[in-house]
Amino acid sequence: MKKLWLLLVMALLAVMLIACGESEEGNTDGSTENEAEASETENESSASEEESNKAIDELSISFVPSREPDEITTATEPLKELLKEEMANLGYDIGNVEISVGTSYEAVGEALSAGTTDIGFIPGGTYVLYDDGAEVLLTSTRAGLTNDSDNAKDWNDNKPTEASDEQVTYYRALMIAGPSEKGQELAEKVNSGEELTFEDIDSASWAVMSTSSPAGYIYPALWLKDNFDKTITDLSNKVKVDSYGSAFARLAQKDIDVMVTYADARRDNADTWQSDFNREGTIWDETNVIGVTSGIYNDTISVSKNSEIMDEDLKTAIQQAFLNIAETEEGKEVISIYNHEGYQKASDADYDKEREAQEMVQSLN
């Protein structure tokens, strides 16, 4: 009997061990199967995320030559990676960001119209001339200045011009007289409180920018119209320059007496005035404002209507990308080349006043 009971106990234990083993094997197989399913789901999710980003081989950006082209190219180099990163977060994988500086303001406008560049950093004046092929997305904001009077003497009494904490959406153009004998003569008359005559203005040699430049042509032309019922085309001695840097160089060398530029471009050229242009005095001592225009709406970031890759979704992504970039320290450094400090969303109607200015200039020409 003892042997019989022992055999029964051993048989029962064997059955229990087999059952436990099968249970553990079943749990192991189930766990492995669950892990495989989870891994497969994760891979599918990752693949789905990659597929959700639209691939674009190249996105091209053109800048107007408001400063020396090499200076703009160097300063904007970091923009390539910044834009790639932001666009990736917004659903676009950009293969290459191509940056170029146009030979003129018109060249960038024409490139936007033709669709040979996708994005253009252009002033309002250029935008309204080429709005048949360009669409504005953003307007720049920048720090205001400690000088904002429409009276030229006020600018000379409060030199040097400094930045203020206020963000503004407009700027003014200045007529700046240099260290030449005629330039100093005009400045002395303004600073003594006398009004300039057109004969005074016409006796000087002038440097102007291309006809689509707001600060370099359009608004100075309106200033001449408002004050003397004349325009730039009526000036006897004028020369067209390709950049404000070139104009300052001519002013320093006394090749010209007066230049037109944005307020206050002297801040950007204070160092080169003495280092590169070999002037003994400072730019603030040797130059004076003889005329101030009304406010000019700030520069735009515009896109081409005729670009092969441009659609509404891409426009929205580009708009948001630059808004985001302008919020970063590295981004602020890049856009400072144009004295931009931020951006706000823009509409075509924002530039209606600019159209009025352009129409007047065109009629005068």
Automatic annotation (TrEMBL):
Q: Where is this region: Disordered?
A: 24-55
The residues the entry assigns to the signal sequence are 1-21
**Keywords recorded for this protein, A-Z:** Signal
Top-rank taxon, per record = Bacteria
SUPFAM superfamilies linked: Periplasmic binding protein-like II
Segments of skewed composition (Acidic residues) = 24-50
Kindly provide the name given to this protein in its UniProt entry.
Answer: Phosphate/phosphite/phosphonate ABC transporter substrate-binding protein
Q: Which organism is it from?
A: Gracilibacillus caseinilyticus
